[in-house]
Amino acid sequence: MRSLLKKLVVGTLLAMTAASAPVLAADVWLMDGVEPRPEGNATVEAGKFKKDGPWVIAMSHFGVNANTWTVQTAHEAQGIADGDDRIGKFIMLDANFDQAKQVADIEDLLAQNPDALIVMPVTSTSADAGIQKAIDAGIPVVVHTGRVENQNFTVDIQGGAENFGKVMGDFLVEQLDGEGKIWVLRGLPSHPEDINRYNGLMQALEGTSIEITQEDHGSWVYDLGKKLCETFYLNDPNVDGIWSSGADMTRACVDVLKQFGADIPPITGEGNNGFFGQWIKEGYPSIVAEYSPSQAAAGVRAAVALLEGKELHKHYIYEPAGWNIEKAKKYYRDDLTANVWWPTELPEDKLQELYGKK
């Protein structure tokens, strides 16, 4: 009996110790594929921002309605917030890709005394003053989907960027054997993600004989991408490969080439359901650089982890390998519209509600 009682007491003490022990940064999961930056990475000490709920979490989104991907990021973030009873209020403001509006949005959000602030920056400097003001007020700041010059944030999660552009660039270098002419369809001018993806392409092309013959910004949307590719083709139809920084622009460019009866050269893509359907049907050479809209969900999780008092790393990276067509086939959904992006954390009922074909 004494032996049994001793075991029960020891077990209870161990459980209490485990429950009270701080959660180490290595034990915090934010999203599949998101990992701590391997070098030069500080940690946010456990308990620094711990608060009892209900919490107010504020988010400055760089542009919800810019394209179908940004729309989904808003749904992914809202989904995590809606599923956590400790979040009493989740406030998201849309900067509409306007630097001045993002400055004003963050001022408005801070005026509501949030417990944590999440920022998706319009440019590398548009959120700097707001980030500093939040930090000075003791409010933790999570930055994701775009780098900022102000490094005083609490945590950042950076996906895509150079890795995204290089995955695509390396694919073209391999397909073209290091020589030939390519078109380049970039994203939104001045956006940090566009700049960093392009830098990744430059890294891939270094030392090759590949020449960029035509280049412009299509802002990651179908209509602008289509206009660019029409212009490129009419200017000079001779192209050996196409580096497209977004799947909607890829779909548009393929449609243009088909319209002119031209062969489709190796062209880069992204995890969009519409692109997957087109790729699978047409079978042209391509690769997918993964850039999940669930990064917005990871941003909310990071804010929650800070308010829970968990230890986090300051810097997280999201640099997955490229996808081939076989992986695309596993994700493609014919029952959903072209507007859903993979991988996603949205549950099936929400996917059907938002993207189900009527």
TrEMBL record:
Its main location: periplasm. It holds the Pfam family Peripla_BP_4. The lineage of its organism: Bacteria, Pseudomonadati, Pseudomonadota, Alphaproteobacteria, Hyphomicrobiales. Belongs to the bacterial solute-binding protein 2 family. Residues 1-25 form the signal peptide. The keyword Signal applies. This is Substrate-binding domain-containing protein. Residues 66-311 form the Periplasmic binding protein domain. InterPro entries: Bact_Solute-Bind_Prot2 (IPR050555), Peripla_BP_I (IPR028082), SBP_2_dom (IPR025997).
